[in-house]
């Protein structure tokens, strides 16, 4: 069974650099931002539920209609919770499947700016907070 580390930190903190360094060392890393975008555009449940919330135009030519989603999200504070309640559990399931396929590795990682906020803390054994002072980034 793999030890799972969660890599988190603010925008520009160096999460991606840490993830790339781990990958160079042979540690697989699930990049939640990339995977959540993929899942949001391909998962039938997510598409159906988001369409019910924001309208049928949530996908345009197979791509997420970001302006429509942004208008919905900024319309009311509870809207973000509603969208996250649709997407985050599916990403969590995808991560679990991804991790199960890599159980022969001693160490695997997941990179997420909102690791704790999205409810992924219980999915990992350790959390690594990446922080770079402003003058370094």
Automatic annotation (TrEMBL):
**Protein origin, superkingdom:** Bacteria
InterPro entries noted in UniProt: Depp_CoAkinase (IPR001977), P-loop_NTPase (IPR027417)
Question: GO:BP terms for this protein?
Answer: coenzyme A biosynthetic process
Q: Gene3D superfamilies, per this entry? A: P-loop containing nucleotide triphosphate hydrolases (3.40.50.300)
Write out the GO MF terms.
ATP binding; dephospho-CoA kinase activity
- Is this entry keyworded Glycosyltransferase? no
Q: Keywords of this protein's UniProt record, alphabetized?
A: ATP-binding, Coenzyme A biosynthesis, Kinase, Nucleotide-binding, Transferase
- Keyword Signal on entry: no
Protein family membership:
Belongs to the CoaE family.
Q: What is this protein called?
A: Dephospho-CoA kinase
Source organism per UniProt: Bacteroides reticulotermitis JCM 10512
């Amino acid at each position: 069974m793999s030890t799972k580390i969660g890599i988190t930190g603010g925008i520009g903190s160096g999460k991606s650099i840490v993830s790339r360094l781990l990958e160079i060392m042979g540690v697989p890393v699930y990049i939640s931002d990339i995977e959540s975008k993929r899942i949001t555009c391909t998962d039938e449940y997510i598409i159906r539920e988001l369409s019910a919330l924001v309208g049928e135009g949530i996908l345009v030519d197979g791509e997420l209609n970001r302006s429509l989603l942004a208008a919905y999200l900024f319309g009311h504070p509870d809207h973000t919770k509603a969208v996250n309640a649709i997407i985050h559990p599916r990403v969590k399931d995808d991560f679990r499947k991804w991790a199960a396929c890599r159980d022969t590795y001693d160490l695997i990682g997941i990179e997420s700016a909102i690791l704790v906020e999205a409810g992924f803390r219980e999915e990992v054994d350790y959390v690594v907070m990446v922080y770079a002072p402003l003058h370094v980034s």
